[in-house]
Amino acid sequence: MTTAIWWIRRDLRLADNPALEAALQSAQTVVPMFIIDPVLLQTPNASPRRLAFLYQNLHALHSRLVDIGGRLIIRAGKPIEVLTAVLRETQAEAVFAAADYSRYALSRDSEIAQTLPLKLVGGPALFPPDAVRKPDGTPYKTFTPYSKAWKALPFSGEPQPAPSRLVAPSQMMSLTLPDPDPDYASLEFPPGEMEAGRRLEGFIYGPGAAVYGYGEGRNLLAEDGTSRLSPYLRFGVISARQAVYAAKQAAARAETEAERLAAETWLNELIWREFFISILYHFPHVQKTSFQPNMQNMRWQNDQDQFAAWGAGRTGYPVVDAAMRQLTQTGWMHNRARMITASFLTKHLLIDWRRGERFFMQHLIDGDPASNNGGWQWTAGTGVDAAPYFRIFNPITQGIKFDPQGAYIRRYLPELRHVPADYIHQPWTMPEFTQRQVGCLIGKDYPQPIIEHAAARERALFEYITRTK
Description:
The protein is mainly alpha-helical. 48% of the residues lie in helices and 5% in strands.
């Protein structure tokens, strides 16, 4: 064919991009196009930080396209209407795009495919949801057997390099690419696939490669022990295959059994991401209700004042509050902190997990419908889990274990900066003399705990056990 459209969605990269590769193999001229969809801009889950990160990465992608002879075409409107107009305008014979598996994406693409030559190639996961099934053809509902089946599938090999040349029409009209809102543009996550590649390279091959300490380091809140690639994976700035290939290479190069297991642990985290994509695809009701039927009528308390305190980082539990302020200030939160804060909201406060899920989506740069929903339901005990109600994180011991000196807490809670380590996880136990000495009066400068841990735990156990009978 003469001309094809590369419709960019969640694959903001040139390297290892099956949809782009297919377009280049099929047509002499390829039109790289991004459609600003008002539906996605207006959803209640929209995040200013995530939108700013998207725009940052679109600018970076445009620069890379210019370097190889192309340019990024920006249009806005309902995708089926925009694509119909562009197909007519360019006489293109096909639209190539990476698959997506959210409810909206599936509905949108199904409608488009009925009338337009839409070809879906690749996607946000290494293996599409239909590829990993039980022997009887049904989808997996638990992670361990899913991961074994996932690992048993043949790996597709080394990621493909970016194309060196792209021929795109020079006369096409394009809207001006919006600039990211400077109030929300991320400094912690610079845009572009070159940055994503550097992060992956440093995590796997850098001095003291963090992947080999990942088994322990991934839980230490104040340490840089994770890959911090989640925003880039969310928008396809780096591909799932690139990450999985790096994990496999790290495991193969490991010099000790401990290093190999650490690399395997990171690979398992990548598989969790694909598992949650599969769950959302096969069980779309999880976006609105609990995966576990017996949890769909849970008696949530939904105290608005407590929800507001949680969102503002004013619960009186330092590790919870530090995590929530990290989220609202930076648009990102450490994964261990996500579990701690989600457990506190759903089990200590008995507030509906859907309220927390939406709050995260409204703030996270890496907010992904599948991973966010899966994580919240897993922690709330409503999702894919066997004995959920026994898992109630103690916010005091979690802080002691994963931020022993309080460095993470002090980073995000300046009012506790001078609190001695002996009191940093339970500042309400400080003698009044010490409170005055360090300039932090509990109840004034920092709140008393909004709920007592032991009583909250007993209440949660009672409610959950009642619901599982």
